[in-house]
Write a structure and sequence with these properties.
Blueprint lengths: L1 H53 L5 H26 L3 H21 L1 H16 L7 E4 L2 E8 L3 E5 L5 E5 H6 L2 E3 L6 E9 L5 H13 L11 E7 L3 E9 L6 H18 L14 H4 L7
Antiparallel strand pairs: 1-2, 1-5, 2-3, 3-4, 6-8, 7-8
Helix pairs in contact: 1-2, 6-7
Length: 288
């Protein structure tokens, strides 16, 4: 009798499980269909996101990462909805709570890494700098070689690369010499008191204005600045920094100015112990 009762109890329990499983079959089918739908949707949205971002950002790592994040988020949403259809609401709540705790722990453990990641993302999207730009930031001047999620790489023009954390680049001022396609070059020199200032000004402007890399607009400017052992002046002009390096432009302008001043017998003075002003009275032009 006891065996018969035990067998009937087992049968009743198995039958109950079977009936419950049978009732869950439609919900399980719906959940599976939802997962498949969200998986396909994640692929489509991810591809659309990647195509859209490639038009506004050259950072392939950011583009690919964004596509992967979008895909994971959509699949996760589908998983939570599918669990809700199956009536596993408590499981969904537990998963969300666990994800929140994990995210909080990771955020505290990797504060600098997270800050650099977010800053790199904002740089890639806002594009205050681009690859190829000549910039100055955090005390470093150079050409941008790469914009990564974690850092920005500069070529300082001395055979070295400088890798700056994205957080520092994003939070501190950036001087971009390439954004407007123009850069101002200033040359400071002196002339003697015996020279005619109007003549020196005209000669200097003509000498610089004829250089091929000097932009016609804005026009070169010449201004006298101060009196001292000699009369100091500043000569400024504009170049395209993407085609002419600043150092090269300044060097060529100095040579052109010195040649023009020599041709017109204008003496450049820099210190009293370097030049003897008396030589100006008996100065003769160099032979051609």
């Amino acid at each position: 009798m006891n065996l018969q009762k035990a067998a009937s109890l087992i049968y009743a329990e198995l039958l109950s499980w079977f009936l419950q499983a049978a009732r869950l079959v439609p919900k399980l089918a719906v959940a599976i269909l939802l997962l498949l739908f969200f998986a396909m949707l994640s692929r489509w949205v991810s591809r659309w996101s990647v195509r859209g971002l490639t038009r506004v950002s050259d950072n392939l790592s950011l583009v690919n990462l964004t596509g992967a994040v979008v895909r994971v988020l959509i699949v996760s949403a589908g998983l939570f909805i599918a669990l809700g259809v199956l009536g596993l609401d408590k499981t969904v709540t537990s998963l969300l709570a666990g994800a929140g705790v994990i995210a909080l722990a990771v955020g505290f453990a990797f504060q600098d890494l997270t800050a650099n990641f977010i800053s790199g993302t904002m740089i890639a999207l806002a594009r205050p700098i681009q690859v190829g730009d000549t910039v100055e930031t955090n005390g470093f001047l150079g050409k941008v070689l790469a914009i990564k999620l974690r850092s920005v790489v500069l070529d300082n023009g001395q055979g070295q690369t400088v890798e700056l954390p994205s957080k520092d680049v994003f939070q501190k001022p950036i001087i971009n010499y390439s954004r407007l396609g123009q850069r101002r070059v200033e040359l400071v020199a002196n002339v003697s008191y015996l020279d005619d200032l109007n003549t020196a000004q005209q000669v200097a402007l003509t000498a610089v204005g004829t250089l091929p890399f000097v932009l016609p607009s804005p026009k070169p400017e010449f201004n006298y600045r101060s009196f001292g052992d000699s009369i100091q002046f500043s000569l400024s002009f504009w170049i395209n920094p993407t085609t002419t390096p600043h150092a090269v432009a300044l060097s060529e302008a100095m040579k052109a100015l010195k040649t023009a001043f020599d041709k017109h017998h204008i003496l450049m003075l820099f210190a009293g112990h370097t030049f003897d002003l008396k030589q100006k009275l008996g100065w003769t032009p160099p032979s051609a």
